[in-house]
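Researcher: I'd like a candidate sequence for this fold, 217 residues long. If you have to choose between options at a position, lean toward the conservative one.
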């Protein structure tokens, strides 16, 4: 495994720092059922890390029906309202095990931290989790044109930190996110299963298994 003098760690949010990936799953499942599209965990893996309209288009394509642009906007709003009701009560207790400790470890070692989430709800989520102050740079949907798997979000985070891509590494739970990190020419740490995240350089089950020293030269 490549060890390096990294100067920053760029985190995905949903499914890495908190289990909002599950809430996205529940909200998309309900939406998919409402339009008669089949939906399961394997299909959901293709949606993780993909932005709202991109995910909706994948679900609608699976339904085999046609939808107008106005229908699509209404369905996207419907999913988002459901998702927002699921995250309304989010609090610092919803940080995944090891999340707060990983951020502290990285900052204590003098490295910088950034957030790279395509979610338009990212700011609200980090505020409710009490970690909004833990990032030197936050890049969300408002700051990019191309969703993951495009590398833009990770490259924008690195540029915001004033660093080159190889000085940063990325942490992701999604297939699209790992592809984005690798296309940005960064080291990719996967969170989840190595069977799913085949493109990652290393995969751990969760941030409770994270130790910065494992990656530093
Ligand atoms: C990503 C999630 O972080 O954000 C996706 O992995 C989600 O599941 C995407 O669709 C967009 O989120 P939002 O909050 O803008 O609908
Ligand atoms: Mg994610």
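Model: Candidate sequence:
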């Amino acid at each position: 495994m490549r060890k390096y003098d990294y100067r920053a760690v760029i985190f995905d949010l949903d499914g890495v720092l908190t289990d909002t990936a599950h809430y996205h799953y529940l909200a998309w499942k309900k939406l998919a059922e409402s339009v008669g599209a089949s939906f399961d965990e394997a299909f959901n893996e293709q949606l993780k890390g993909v932005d709202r309209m991109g995910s909706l288009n994948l679900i609608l394509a699976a339904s085999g029906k046609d939808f107008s642009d106005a229908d699509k906007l209404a369905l996207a709003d419907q999913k988002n309202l459901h998702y927002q009701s699921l995250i309304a009560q989010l609090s610092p207790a919803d940080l995944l095990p090891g999340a707060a400790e990983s951020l502290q470890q990285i900052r204590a070692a003098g490295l910088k931290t950034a957030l790279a989430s395509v979610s338009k709800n990212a700011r609200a989520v980090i505020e409710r989790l009490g970690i909004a102050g833990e990032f030197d740079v936050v890049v969300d949907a408002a700051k990019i044109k191309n969703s993951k798997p495009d590398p833009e979000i990770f490259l924008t985070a690195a540029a915001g930190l004033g660093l080159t891509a190889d000085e940063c590494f990325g942490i992701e739970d999604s297939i699209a996110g790992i592809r984005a990190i690798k296309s940005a020419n960064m080291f990719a740490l996967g969170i989840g299963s190595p069977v799913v995240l085949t493109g990652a350089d290393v995969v751990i089950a969760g941030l409770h298994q994270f130790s910065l020293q494992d990656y530093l030269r």
